[in-house]
Amino acid sequence: MIYFDNSATTQTDPSVVATYVKVTEEVFGNPSSLHHLGDHADGLLQQSRKQVASIMGVEPKEIFFTSGGTEGDNWAIKGTAIEKGKYGKHLITSSVEHPAVKESMAQLEKQGFEVTYLSVNREGIISLEELKEALRSDTILVSIMAVNNEVGSIQPIAEIGEILKAYPKVHFHVDAVQAIGKIKLDLSASSRVDLATFSAHKFHGPKGIGFMYIRQGKKIAPLLSGGGQEFGRRSGTENLAGIVAMSKALRLLYTDALVKQQKQREIKEYLSAGLEKYSKVSVFSSPTGAPHILCFALRGIRGEVFVHAMEKVGIYISTTSACSSRSQTSSSTLSAMHVPENLATSAVRVSLTDTNTLAEAKQFLVEFAKLEEQFRDIH
């Protein structure tokens, strides 16, 4: 089996699974309980928070544990709207965001908020000039993803931050789910990023656990109210086993991170070079994009047909975003990049992780050549 669908989810690292099981079996106390079992659980919780914060270069009180990327995006956007709605009702995002962002924005539009959707160029990147023109006195939030989940385009987060330094009252949210461990992420005071969203199952951690960075002093309303966990901002008994396992996965992710990134980039470049030899192949991912995502199309063959054909030979890829792949609709990201509809419906995504190898890429191209010939004969 060759697994090239890592942007949908990664295989949980065996040592992370072992950590999860160990904590589940041995540290079963509620971190909010007053007895020693609760104290033990809370100690492990705070230890994990410190480890995540240290790796990300922030303070422990700026890390909040969530259920994953979708909750984080919803909380950042709706929490800002609830908290700051009395000061303004204008939000800015891009036309190529994850559904968790787009649908949150759409929901707020029904509540009377106004959303500006920034266009992108043919590489899927926003215009900084368009952002400058979109900012208004009643703007309360700018939400831009760091790395696009479908084509891997990298947005100019640092440059956006520089622009927003002139707008200190505007919250800046970054969906960093596809960026963590793949590109440099700066959450320091100079970066101007106020809110950032992360999900463990994208870096060999468990599903159902993630974390948010919320810069100290920035206020967003809680979406979950109740027992006052997570400093009163995200109630609900903590998923301790998931949190501890995620912190371990994060530590493993950043061990030799640059070496891992370079390995993935070399595989991506090898695949791209091999695919571009075919006249009916269009590659949508930029060479300067994220090292792990390669989106392309074999013209005339619908994406889902190609995905299942690859599956039959033991290779697993996807049709762009996993969150919308079953709908069998064309990619909204490719549409925003001005890719024609008939070509966008043929798009598929190969997404890598540090455990993938060049040998797997070579085998992929061997099987691709066979399928391309079969489809050519059919047509």
What does this structure look like?
It is a single chain. The chain is an alpha/beta fold. It has 2 domains: 2-9 and 256-377, Alpha-Beta Complex (Aspartate Aminotransferase, domain 1), CATH 3.90.1150.10; 14-254, Type I PLP-dependent aspartate aminotransferase-like (Major domain) (Aspartate Aminotransferase, domain 2), CATH 3.40.640. It is 41% helix and 14% strand. A 7-stranded mixed sheet has the order 2-8-7-6-5-3-4, with helices on both faces. A 3-stranded antiparallel sheet has the order 9-10-12. Helix 6 (157-164) links the parallel strand 5 (139-143) and strand 6 (171-175). Helix 2 (36-56) runs parallel beside helix 8, helix 3 runs parallel beside helix 4 and helix 9 packs parallel to helix 13. The two termini are 29 Å apart. The mean pLDDT is 95.
Q: Topology of this structure?
A:
Elements: E1 2-3, H1 14-26, H2 36-56, E2 63-66, H3 69-84, E3 90-94, H4 99-110, E4 114-118, H5 128-134, E5 139-143, H6 157-164, E6 171-175, E7 195-199, E8 210-214, H7 229-232, H8 240-253, H9 257-275, E9 281-283, E10 293-298, H10 303-312, E11 315-316, H11 332-336, H12 341-344, E12 347-351, H13 358-378
Parallel strand pairs: 1-11, 3-4, 3-5, 5-6, 6-7
Antiparallel strand pairs: 2-8, 7-8, 9-10, 10-12
Helix pairs in contact: 1-8, 2-8, 3-4, 9-13
GO molecular function: cysteine desulfurase activity; iron-sulfur cluster binding; lyase activity; metal ion binding; transaminase activity
EC number: 4.4.1.-
Protein name: Aminotransferase class-V family protein
